[in-house]
Amino acid sequence: MNRAFAVLLWITAGFCLALRVGGSQPAAAAPQDPAELERSLAVIVNQSNPVENLSLAELRTIFRADRNHWPDGRRVTIALREPGKLERATVLREIYQMTERDFSRYFLHATFTGEALSTPKTLATAGGVRKFVFNVPGAIGCVRAGEVDETVKVIRLDGRLPGEKGYRLQLERP
Amino acid sequence: MKLKRFQQRRRPASAQHQLFLAIAGAVFLATLLASACAWAQQAVAPPPSDREVIAELLKRVQLLETRVKDLEAERAQGAGPAKPIKAAPIAETPARTAPQGENEMAMPDTGPNLRIRGFTDVTLHGSNQKGSTTSFSLGQMNLFITSDVSEKFKFLSEIVFEAGDDNAIGVDVERLLLQYSHNDYFNLAIGRYHTAIGYYNTAYHHSTWFQTAVGRPFLFQFEDNGGILPIHNVGASASGRIPSGALGLHYVAEVGNGRTSRAPLREAVQNVVDENNHKAVNLALFARPGVLPGLQTGLSVYRDVLAPDNSPRIGQTILAAHAVYVRPSFEWLNEALVIRHAPRGQTHVFHTPGFYTQISRRFGSYRPYFRYQYVNAAADEPIFSDVGLRHGPSVGLRFDASEAVALKLQYDHTNLRQRPGIDALTLQFAFTF
Description:
Helix content of chain B: 10-25%
Largest sheet of chain B: 16 strands, antiparallel, barrel
Helix content of chain A: 40-55%
CATH class of the largest domain in chain A: Alpha Beta
Low-confidence stretches of chain B: 1-15, 26-47, 78-100
Number of helices of chain A: 6
Strand content of chain B: 35-45%
Oligomer: heterodimer
């Protein structure tokens, strides 16, 4: 009897533990560290864009206008924050690997040769970038992960979402 | 007695057991209650008290106030908030955001926008060449115009104002293209374009500001400056990527009128009338490997038939190869080509080889550079009788005084066949506006 009761107690404890673990699963799927999430830069596209994941190399070809179209045929349009903003500095450092001056010259040259079908649009606020991406089906932009809302879609970068371990686009520390 | 003893012995055991059962039962019930409470908390929250409700409402009011302030700030900066998905229709046209550094002329209605960018230079040039004088020269003033006709169609042109040797200024439409972009694998352009022979011709058009050196390599000089290649062509050009993964293969296929047979009094580019029915064809293939951004290698084959006056037709074939590595702070260009002329009815075939190499490295605003170039046309070459042999080095320094203004100083030494070499010094102010 004692042994049976002990087994019952053990099972109950195990069940409670399992419930607790099960209850924490959604939290595990979400970004682990809110501070980490705040430091991440999210790549956002229009909700109608079929792309879910890009490698960093693919992202570079898109942002450098080596690729001008999405798989659905839409023309790529890049939305960036204005010069001096941390988000833009991160994009220039991690994606373009250029200075502001090199970036301007690069796109002027790409437009001149006809290889770039459009130049990046500069927007003053994160809300402006979101709104642009929301309104333009082929748009792609970058905003802080904490500033993403349901109007846009976040692209996985090398299979990772902002805030997840190993995510490559991290804002420069001030 | 035995029963009594048994009862005496059994009683305390039963009491202990009952006590243990009571404790275990309490623990079990407590565990179950705790689990149930945890379960219930996850599923349905217990009804909050009035104080909690008020606190929650105050918190939400604070959040809403913050949000309203953010929205007002965004509106004040000219960008509205992101609209909810169901509230805003999806627009087909991009937001009217002016690209950096370009002048945009918006039509009063919803028509295409015209964007204009300008390039020009002023040069001081002197040399020991017999008959030349040290002179200030106005360079080409290029108005580079683009317009998004629609999502798939785009217009591009270069309108160039240029002074000739007679000091008179003329106007040339150097490029005029209607481009159709279906996807990354198929783009079609029709109009006047720069032929995709080698690298330099399509990388640097009519702007000295883009170029590191003061001028183009002799191989890629414009037709009206004594160049030997069909730099411009009027016709159609298809281009795009070739599915090749990290290799980054691209193709270009062009068909056009070709250039005239180097008759000095004729316009070299056949803008309206071709001198024969044969069309010039050019095929180019190049790779931009993803593992090394900035690297490009490629080949091209150009074929045309020339029809010089009072002479048999000449088959022209141009084979070109290039390997370049271009990064913002480093540049290494290498190109070689051979032009084959085969007059019909003759067994003799003429080959004109040429190459150049150019290397530069940026140090802050300064960029020293070096170029060596070579071209060798036979003295009896039927088309290039005025070219001959010329080769030699160029060394220079480019100083970017601002994002849009460059100052270049260049020294050239050119060796010629059976003629004295030429030393030249050039100072150039090149800028974009």
